[in-house]
Amino acid sequence: MDAQLKKGVLELCLLQCLSGEPKYGYDVIQTMRGCFPDVTESTFYAILRRLAKEGAADTFQGSESNGPVRKYYRLTNEGRDRLDQMAADWRSLREIMTKLGIQ
Amino acid sequence: MKWRAKPALTRQAWLEKLARRLAWTFPEPQARDILADYQEQFEAGKEHGKSDEEIIEALGTPAEAAALLLEEEPAARIEQFRHTLLWAAAAVVCWAFMWFCLMSIFSAARMAGFCILIPFTSSVLFMLLRGPSKVALERLVPPERLASRVGTFLLPAAAMLVCTALQEIVILAVMRLRITLLENIGVAVTTFLLVFIIAMLLLSAWFLLLSAARSVRYFPGVVHALGGVVSSALFMTRYYISVDIDPYAVPPELEILFRLLPYFVGLFTALAFQSWIDGRRPLPLCFRTKAVTWTDWRHHLGVNLLGWYDPEQAGEIVADYQERFELGQERGRSEEDLLSEFGRPTAVTRALLQEDRKARLRSRKNCLWAIPFLAALLLLYRMILSFNFGSIFFDAALEQVVGCLFLLLGSISLFMLLHGRGRAALEGRFPADKQPTVWVYLLPLLCMAAVMGWMVYSFCHPELEIIGHAVPWLLLELIRFFILVMLLLQLWTLSRCVSGAIRYFPAAVHTAGSIAGMLAMGAILFRLDMGAFLSEWAGASFFAEVLRVLLPLPYLLGGLLAAVFWLILRAAGKSHKEG
Asked: How far apart are CA B263 and CA B229, in angstroms?
């Protein structure tokens, strides 16, 4: 997949991945890697960091059943707005593509 | 021939390589955060049954990881570039000072100068190499191969010992055998010292390279070797200027200690750095990264805006941001978050300027003040030349006039270039974090008082000698030392004026006055025929003559100008507060 095209898509996918319950950073990256096996984990981490820096995602320290304390990510209201916007953009793009005969 | 396959990276080596790259590209807190996240990634991967090789393959190379992070946070690169530029400029200034000291004729002042400059230059180099950040990151991920103490301490010490022993043998041979071919021996010693200095410089450069590319633990080696270079260079220039085997005219048992003083200063500085790097002592405050506060940010925005907008408009823009900040805090957002959202003050100003072309034109008018400022710098250069080689004027007292002219041109043009009144008005409304303390004013005053006191004493006791020099001639040494101290203070106060509060400006003018005063006095003393001058001691006109020639007129003018600027700033700040 083209790098530029993939970059926008990855952000949307990461936002979608974070939209439910707060998730442990490692799990988010592994889920994404399962979908995009040719993309390095560092790519997802860099985008995740940017999203947190821009206020679209929030981080906090938490632990699962007496496990070690780890960094968890969750979507903020700003992140949810961004996800809605990007998802709408994606849908309209898909419609255009379909109209043009690109399946 | 078969090439040996590159060994696979271990977890430790991967993290170490990433830490090295992060130290150069990200501020310390961010770099630490990223490194901790990657450590967590490794641990979590292991818990899920993955081997280190598999985790590393999934992560990519450390270079790729660092590049991806930078791609997502391009502001970090600009920030680090600024950091490099600033500290590289400071390093150049330090080397210029070192050169100034090395080329000075008198030995005691430059010795004292080096004792200040070695720790100072080392600190600047430490900052340039991202020392504090590397220390923090190496604590998180200790390097696999530690720097050996044999290299950083034993090697320069052994080289210095051999060099000093050889010098001593030559000196003893010359003194005992009363060799008449002193010049030939002088040339041989000079050549030997030159080779030694080059070897030590190469060693210092090698340690510098290692501390930049591998580990900060090599840094004490840089400082240690630097001390050796300075110590030998000092001795060599003395040979070069005059083939004098007993250059400092101090008792022989003390001479060797005196000659090795810069080396010992380098050694102790290296030991101090070693203890900070090892974590046996906490890093001094000056090396710690300070988080940008809202007051700092607001102040820097105001300073940036004043380059293009008048104080009223700049104040309005800053007030708008103040409102946004307060609103953000009411909604529970942290200071760090809000400042990160606003971006750098320069970026905010640039964005505003894109919408306002008229403002860009306005700034050009102010640039005209750079012309008198450059003229003042030329006058300063001429004063330094006179100080080193004697006054060129028929009447040496004219040096005082040059000093006064430099002060007037320099202080007024710089005040205008820095938008002094506008900044005072803005600081009246939005106060800066730090204000000057009394000692900034007291230090130049004490230096001048010491010089004047020593001058009166030396003219009253011209027959006295200290370490082989007539007391009046030691006055020049004292002046040279104080000029160096004042130049360092001047650099500091000026940097505070530019990036901190404008309230430092009167202190900078006062310090410049003391520098100009001492330069003028030194130039006159250098040219003065001391014998003829002192023979007039008996005459009643002596004090009048001393007053006419040696009164530090530029210092008095500097004090007066500082008071005037203080009043102007106070009035501007007050009027805006009341408005």
From this structure: 8
Mark yes or no for CB contact A42/B340 under 8 Å: no
Q: Which residues of A touch B41 (CB under 8 A)?
A: 25-26, 29, 41, 45
Out of A25, A42, A70, the one facing B60 most closely (by C-beta) is A42
Render pLDDT for B446-470 as a digit per residue (tens, 0 to 9): 988 888 887 777 777 666 665 555 5
What amino acid occupies position A68? P
CB B228 within 8 A of CB B159: yes
Tell me how far apart the alpha carbons of residues B87 and B83 are, in angstroms, rounded to a whole number. 6
CA torsion sign, B37 to B39 to B40 to B44?
A: positive
Q: How far apart are CA B287 and CA B331, in angstroms?
A: 34
pLDDT of residue B396: 63
How far A32 CA lies from chain B's nearest CA (Å)?
Answer: 12
* Closest-CA residue to B500 (of B302, B287, B289): B302
Contact A40 B65 (CB under 8 A): yes
C-beta atoms of B73 and A53 within 8 A: yes
Q: Is the pLDDT of residue B288 over 50?
A: yes
Q: What is the pLDDT of residues B404-458, one digit of tens each?
A: 999 999 999 999 888 888 888 888 888 776 778 888 889 999 988 888 887 777 7
Percent of chain B scoring above 90 in pLDDT: 15
Angle between helices B62-72 and B11-25 (to 10 degrees): 30
In this prediction the pTM is: 0.70
- How far apart CA B114 and CA B121 sit, in angstroms, is 10
Q: At what angle do helices B335-342 and B311-330 cross, to 10 degrees?
A: 130
Residues in chain A whose Cβ is within 8 Å of chain B: 24-26, 29-30, 33, 40-43, 45-47, 49-50, 53, 55, 68, 70-71
Chain A residue with Cα closest to B73 = A50
B contacts of A53 (beta carbons < 8 Å): 73, 340
Q: What's the confidence (pLDDT) of residue B271?
A: 93
